[in-house]
Amino acid sequence: MEDLRRSVSNDNRVVITTLASRAIFCGACVLLSSLTAAGAWAAEEKSPLSFDVRTDLYSAYVWRGKALDKHAVAQPSVVGTYDAQEAGSFSLRVWSNWDLSQRSGDSKETRTGGGINVLLFTPSYTKAFGPVEVTVGNIFYTFPGDGYPRNSKSTYELYTTVAYKNRIATPSFSVYYDYRGVGGGFMVDNPLKDLYARVALDKTFRLAERVTASGTALLGGGTDHYCAVRYRSPGEGFADYQASVRVSYAVTDALSVGATLAYTGLVGGAWGLDRSGVSPDEIVWGGVNLRWLY
């Protein structure tokens, strides 16, 4: 009798174990099917949220014609964009400059000793009207190596860019209004004295299936007060110019590597900056670029 009970008990355990195994197997199949369906849906439905992550390694840090650091720097950045389709797109960009050298002297205006010395936050909004694309945003400049947040020389810039996209090349016109560092406050006095404007021409073409090349030429200028503060040169006029080329290789659909070579300088003479206040600072610089799109 005892043996019969043990046999029945063992049979029940086998049945229960079998049912549990089948249940687990069925659950796994359902979960796998759900994940496969979700993956297929995600492939068909493009997410409105995207990220552009970059790391640039350059031989110098150049800003609007001024070579702020003529030593090696790293400039990582990330841009998050939400595409609202007909309503336009909203973006937030975080950019930084990292000093990779311990050297100091006349060839460096940023903080010495290495590390991060410039940090930018840029929210923006972009709307396309046919081939014309309009962007408005605000750049928040902070300088961690300059005593941030106490005694910092942080400043803010409103800006707008209008670009005309076409098959030949893309011309653009940008205007920046520094309403804190230059004007002392938002819309204080005449804002026209605190403007920096830039015209640019961009061209991108494909060299091979995974290789693209691009070139940019730009010319910038400032109003009287802007040039006096940023370039220590009284009088309005052209301020800086730049010509650059870039080659990029797509390792995958998301990851690409490239190289950049640029020639930058300050404009002097009757239409540019006062040579007695600032000397044109021509410099050839460049480096490598890493980019990941998600």
Q: Can you walk through the features of this model?
A:
The chain is globular. The chain has 2 domains: 1-45; 48-293, monomeric porin ompg (Porin), CATH 2.40.160. Helix content is 17%, strand content 49%. The chain has helices at 2-44, 224-230, and strands at 49-58, 61-63, 66-69, 73-83, 89-99, 115-129, 132-142, 155-164, 170-178, 195-206, 211-222, 237-250, 255-266, 283-293. With 294 residues, it is of the alpha+beta class.
Map the helices and strands.
Layout: H1 2-44, E1 49-58, E2 61-63, E3 66-69, E4 73-83, E5 89-99, E6 115-129, E7 132-142, E8 155-164, E9 170-178, E10 195-206, E11 211-222, H2 224-230, E12 237-250, E13 255-266, E14 283-293
Antiparallel strand pairs: 1-4, 1-14, 2-3, 4-5, 5-6, 6-7, 7-8, 8-9, 9-10, 10-11, 11-12, 12-13, 13-14
Q: What is the helix tally?
A: 2
Order of helices and strands: HEEEEEEEEEEEHEEE
Rg value:
28 Å
* Overall CATH class of the largest domain: Mainly Beta
- Based on secondary structure, the structural category is alpha+beta
Number of domains: 2
The helix fraction, in percent, is: 10-25%
Overall pLDDT level:
82
Biggest beta-sheet profile: 12 strands, antiparallel, barrel
State the end-to-end distance: 69 Å
Counting DSSP E segments of at least 2 residues, the number of strands comes to 14
CATH superfamily name of the largest domain? monomeric porin ompg
Give, in spatial order, the strands making up the sheet with the most strands.
Answer: 1-4-5-6-7-8-9-10-11-12-13-14
Weakly predicted, low-confidence segments? 1-43
The backbone outline, from C-alpha atoms, is globular
From the 3D structure, determine the CATH topology of the largest domain.
Porin
